[in-house]
Design a protein that fits this description.
Blueprint: E1 8-13, E2 17-26, E3 29-39, H1 51-65, E4 72-77, E5 82-88, E6 92-93, H2 97-108, E7 116-122, E8 127-129, E9 132-134, E10 137-144, H3 145-156, E11 164-167, H4 168-180, E12 194-202, E13 207-212, E14 218-223, H5 227-238, H6 242-250, H7 257-266, H8 268-288, E15 292-300, H9 309-317, E16 321-323, H10 333-336, H11 339-343, H12 349-358, H13 371-381, H14 383-411, H15 414-454, H16 458-474, H17 493-499, H18 502-515, H19 524-537, E17 542-551, H20 555-564, H21 573-583, E18 595-604, H22 609-622, H23 624-627, H24 643-648, E19 653-664, H25 680-685, H26 706-711, E20 783-792, E21 804-806, E22 809-811
Parallel strand pairs: 1-4, 4-11, 12-15, 15-16
Antiparallel strand pairs: 1-2, 2-3, 5-10, 6-9, 7-10, 8-9, 12-13, 13-14, 17-18, 18-20, 19-20, 21-22
């Protein structure tokens, strides 16, 4: 019987279903020979779903129907958590390209290389002169090792050996290049106009947008909106359960016209948000790839079944949108004509791209299969030889032991016994000396602990200085400083906002000239026009408050920010997934239990409004390592993250979130709508029921041990929901206003909400801004106010063993007053910003 031809299974194990397709090469043509579409009983991200169990059931069902022995298995991992960088190498010997790429990987990947799995591929051949490769461009792709291992483990648990691991967006690029552009593995692409195709795959929780010409252009961006966002919009607007809303969405095409109109009306807002994200992505791509011409868009994912979605996208994007209807270059009618495959063909883009890569018919051949997995398989293949070698080694060791024993017998002597006795006596004295030394060390340790009790919190005071230094370092500067080269969203920030923006440079020059200008040198009209120009184009961000509040239970905070803004703007995808899981009733085992919540309130007049805040301050807070990357041309970095900053601050800043944002088109100078109060007391309290213990526990101080905080409120009932936080006020905020407008949590400078924040004097900081005109006067330049919050897990250095509780608080045991460190030192004005930050109020 003839051997079964080698085939490749491309398997996309998604949140909604398992999609798999098997391809073979027959007479030089790609042929589909089998497929599977196994839908999960529940969406894996639903609160009551067990993702591991449901995935295992789908894989077992797949294995029960298909024989995979002898086939290659290629699987996908989500692209949202991956990293893609495209780098042009300096002229280098072809033989040393791999060494240069490893150096680039250390610069481009913001994690230690041992924590990631990475691979690269040359995207062009480049010219070779005297053995040097010129203009060599590479694609560098990486993902955290634990995420890759988690994906492989799902298959390993059911006995499936994985051979290829690829990020889903890159699998889509392979699908588009081969099936839609008709290109294979050797299309490096030439300079000139490039005809590109866009693939938009709407997933369950996120979507993938990829653009490629099948050659050198490979561009991808994750979009944080997916089919579940449509379903949640229906649950909210039509008051349905999640299951009913999902059923209604999937069967919208079968609904009557009146019912369909209601569905589309309920989805209007999320559709507008979705199209807005796609428009911004396409706009950025066309601005950065001037020689690229987008031909059309391919719609993928079962969400494209939604009636009217294709037409809606076409009208808004002014671009032809085609739903995937068939595979252009794959034979095998037993698969391609099957009803189940035809009905769900829009979900097979990733699986098809994976199988093409396994057949070596795809442009991108990078593989994120960990090295240790490959090594294990090599060793396993050589096991028979290893067993033989082990047997020979064991026999050799036996001969050596026999020879050593014979030698011992021939050398025994009475003097050996005396020497052994002397050794025992010396050993006994050494043990006594060791015990005495340990006793002295214990006494020294106790003395050090007593010193720590006396000066509790001293070691942590520097943490607050480092936090303020960190916020200063990530705030964009008017001279083009503190801007990343490339943001997490793929935006070329430094290039867009400074290198190519002559208006930004001119605004900075105008501002510098204004500082030394004689009074009356310009007419009032000229001065006003100049100030308006500076406001619109200057890279300027005015920080009016940086406040902090500690909580021993961060869960209400996470639930509150999700309730107030489910899109969780500005948050990294990994952090966003954790918050969304918690909001759906999941556990919080991967999230911090306690910590400081930090709030930054400010405003900007920059013309790009919210986008400017997102790509500068929020981006820098979320990924400061990108700011610290060394520029390959200048050999310098924008900032220097010291080991101390990394250890105590930057590595512990998480869940960065653009909590509030509002643009006033005709703002009044000194009158603010969003940033005139701190939101920390409300966010910390959340919507959880407060404890009913007798009074509140003391406000946490910098560096205070959480155990000390718990003991400071001895009257609290452990069964209560938590400490009473009703009277807590953020550090840096004034006392509460009693009565009148805006009664509530402490607002800036003690002013009630809705009132003026005192404007700085005209010459404070930058001479333009709210201090350049009388308070209350209307400005013709729109002003964007923002409130950014994040969690900081302060690293406690001081440990306080042996604390004892006493009425009114906690005190350390032993001598000394037991000092507790005060709140962080007063925050001065941020560099380049006119409005000073409030001084912290004394502890209450």
């Amino acid at each position: 019987m003839a051997a079964r031809p080698l085939g490749v299974w491309g398997i996309d194990l998604g949140q909604c279903a398992l999609k798999a397709i098997r391809l073979e090469m027959k007479d030089g043509q790609v042929v589909a020979t089998a497929f599977e579409y196994i839908e999960h009983p529940k969406i894996l991200s639903q609160p009551d779903a067990d993702p591991d169990e449901l995935s295992r059931e789908a894989l077992n069902q797949f294995l029960s129907r298909n024989k995979i022995k002898g086939d290659l298995i290629a699987i996908s991992v989500p692209g949202q958590s991956g990293l893609a960088r495209f780098v042009k190498l300096p002229p280098v010997d072809e033989k040393k390209i791999a060494d240069i790429v490893k150096f680039e990987a250390k610069q481009q990947i913001p994690f230690p290389l041992e924590e990631v799995v990475w691979d690269f591929q040359r995207l062009n051949k480049g010219d070779i002169i005297d053995g040097l490769a010129l203009e060599t461009e590479i694609g560098l792709f990486a993902m955290k090792r634990d995420m890759v291992n988690r994906a492989i483990r799902q298959f390993k648990d059911v006995g499936v050996e994985v051979h290829v691991v690829q990020m889903a967006p890159l699998a889509l690029c392979n699908f588009v290049a081969y099936d839609k552009l008709g290109k294979g593995t050797d299309n490096a692409g030439e300079d000139g106009d490039h005809e590109c195709v866009v693939a938009l795959e709407i997933g369950t929780d996120n979507s993938n947008l990829v653009i490629t010409d099948g050659g050198r252009i490979i561009w991808q961006r994750p979009i944080p909106i997916g089919g579940n966002h449509f379903t949640r919009a229906l649950t909210k607007e039509m008051k349905l359960t999640f299951a009913k809303a999902e059923h209604l969405k999937r069967n919208a095409a079968k609904s009557g016209s009146a019912e369909l109109k209601k569905i589309l009306s309920a989805l209007k807002q999320v559709l507008n948000d979705f199209v807005g994200e796609v428009q911004r992505s396409l706009g950025y791509f066309t601005n950065t790839h001037r020689n690229a011409k987008i031909q059309y868009m391919v719609g993928l994912g079962n969400a494209f079944r939604l009636p009217g979605l294709q037409k809606f996208l076409q009208e808004k994007l002014q671009l032809e949108v085609r739903k995937l209807g068939k595979l252009e270059r794959a034979g095998g009618e037993s698969v391609t004509a099957a009803p189940t495959f035809s009905e769900n063909i829009m979900s097979f883009g990733v699986a098809y791209g994976l199988a093409l890569q396994g057949l070596k018919q795809a442009r991108l051949q990078t593989n994120l299969l960990p090295y240790e997995v490959k090594l294990e398989r090599v060793i396993r293949g050589k096991k028979p030889w290893a067993v033989t070698a082990a047997a020979v080694l064991a026999f050799g060791m036996f001969l050596m032991a026999y020879a050593a024993g014979s030698e011992k017998i021939s050398t025994e002597d009475p003097d050996i016994g005396k020497a052994q006795q002397a050794f025992k006596e010396i050993s006994g004295r050494a043990s006594k000396f060791t015990a005495d030394a340990k006793s002295q060390q214990d006494e020294m340790k106790k003395a050090k602990e007593n010193l720590k009790r006396i000066g509790a919190g001293i070691d942590e005071r520097m943490n607050w200085e480092l936090l303020h230094q960190f916020v200063n370092m990530v705030t964009p500067q008017s001279n083009g400083g503190h801007l990343v080269n490339r943001s997490d969203n793929g935006v070329m920030v430094k290039s867009d906002y400074w290198d190519r923006d002559n208006n930004a440079k001119k605004a900075f020059a105008e501002l510098e000239d204004k500082k030394f200008e004689k009074p009356g040198a310009k007419s009032p009209v000229e001065a006003q026009k100049r100030d308006e120009f500076i406001k619109k184009h200057l890279i300027q961000m005015n920080i009016v408050g940086v406040n902090t509040m500690y909580t021993d239970d961060l869960k209400p905070f996470f639930l509150k920010i999700h309730e107030d803004g489910p899109l969780l703007l500005g948050m990294s995808q990994d952090d966003k997934n954790k918050v969304e899981k918690l909001a759906k009733g999941g556990d919080a085992k991967d999230m911090p239990k306690s910590g400081w919540v930090v709030e930054i309130r400010g405003y900007t007049y920059h013309r790009d409004k919210a986008k400017f805040v997102e790509e500068t301050l929020v981006q820098n807070l979320r990924n400061p390592e990108a700011l610290a990357e060394v520029d390959p041309l200048s050999k310098k970095s924008d900032i220097k993250l010291t080991d101390e900053l990394r250890a105590h601050v930057s590595k512990h800043v998480k869940f960065v979130h653009n909590y509030k944002m509002k643009t006033e088109e005709r703002p009044q100078i000194g009158v603010f709508a969003v940033i005139n109060q701190s939101y920390l007391p409300v966010l910390i309290k959340g919507n959880a029921q407060q404890g009913k213990g007798p009074g509140q526990g003391p406000m946490a101080m910098p560096g205070m041990d959480p155990k000390m905080m718990a003991m400071a409120n001895p009257g609290a009932n452990a069964a209560n929901a938590g400490p009473n936080r009703d009277t807590w006020t953020a550090l840096g905020e004034g006392p509460r206003m009693q009565g009148g407008i805006g009664q509530g949590p402490g607002v800036e400078m003690g002013m009630p909400a809705g009132k003026h924040i005192p404007a700085p004097p005209p010459n404070a900081g930058m001479p333009m801004g709210s201090g350049a005109a009388p308070k209350g006067k209307e400005s013709s330049v729109p002003r964007t106010e923002f409130v950014v919050v994040f969690v900081w897990e302060e690293q406690i250095v001081t440990q306080l063993p042996g604390l004892t509780a006493r009425p009114g608080g906690a005190a350390p045991a032993g001598p000394g007053p037991g000092a507790v460190p005060p709140p962080p030192p007063g925050q001065g004005p941020m560099p380049g910003n006119p409005m000073p930050m409030p001084m912290p109020m004394p502890p209450r």
